[in-house]
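Subject: Sanity check before I submit

Could someone independently write out the structure tokens for this chain? I want to compare against mine line by line before I put it in a report. The sequence has 372 residues.
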Amino acid sequence: MSRLFIGNHHTLNSHKLNDSIMKLRILILALVSSFSSACNSSDVPTAPKAAGDPISQLEARIADDTFKQINGIVVLKEGEVVLERYFNGTSPDDLHNPRSVGKTFASAMVGIALRDGYLKSVDQTLDEFYRLEDYENFDPRKGKVSIQQLLTMTSGFEGFDFEPDSIGNEENMYPQDNWVAWTLDLPMASDRNPGEKWYYFTAGVVVLGDILHRVLPGGLEAYAKQELFDPLGITNLQWQYTPQQVANTAGGLQLSARDFAKFGQLYKNKGVWQDKQIIPEAFVVDSFKQHAVTTEDRNDYGYLWWKTYFDVNETRLSPSYASGNGGNKIYVFNEIPVVISITASAYGQRYGHRQIDQIMREYLLPWVMAEQ
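---
Independent answer below. Compare away.
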């Protein structure tokens, strides 16, 4: 059963559902669903839709566990909450681990560091921050890896998280006692130079976080609180940390579903919040540009933002989105004044991202477009 909250971003009104009606609806859905084959762990569910509007259909499919481990959905239109629902015992104030969605906050902090002059440009290179001759596998190309290439996953290090046997896979990093040193010790790839090809490389974002921690007054965590979270009114959050106790930009920054949506709205506002320019507008625009073509179908990459598209009722919508293991997403749309945050816990499951794609195409976006 879900919890429903509808209102604006200042006031949220709670609405209790009638339990007996909901139970009857779920029972009917279960009987109907028994005629369809169960989905396997590697595919998207294909159970019949329930009667009613798309949100009622979606809620029923989450309730009967056709869509699994969905925790929260928040939809903002023109900055106001028009839909907010919670499932599996979660509530508006619960913190949620969004995994790699946290990487996108590192991108925001690069923009803020540029705004305040602590970084000169995204063209600054690793040799400005590290004495790379002191690390293993020295290669002159390593020193010329830029902040922009770390933001766009095109650094050219020998690392690819989507390939289990890759020497630079993030799972090889976590047992190390110094993640930054381990990353800088990696060799450069023999088949590509910095800036040439996209390979998803979490360790590069850890280095980016270390650079931010070095240049920002008081360190990354303190400056993020002062210049990003406090202005947004986000007070309930939890970082994870590297072994050196630096805020971990690989992922895992825990916020509520509401506050993830608020972060998306900041980008929708081109970096402005309550008349204050938090992130430079030019940096937001650059963040949403296509800087790399990924190995993933229908996906390109900006500054730690993914780019995709949905075709809904003969209209193509092309959001930028933050994404994390388990099906966690923040979508910021270009064509409509909408931001959508989804929190989910299908960690390590192949259906985790696929079911969110289906939820967007078949339920949330048709509902959003009908409400325009």
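---
OP: Matches mine. For the report I'm noting this point. The CA atoms of residues 125 and 145 lie 5 Å apart.
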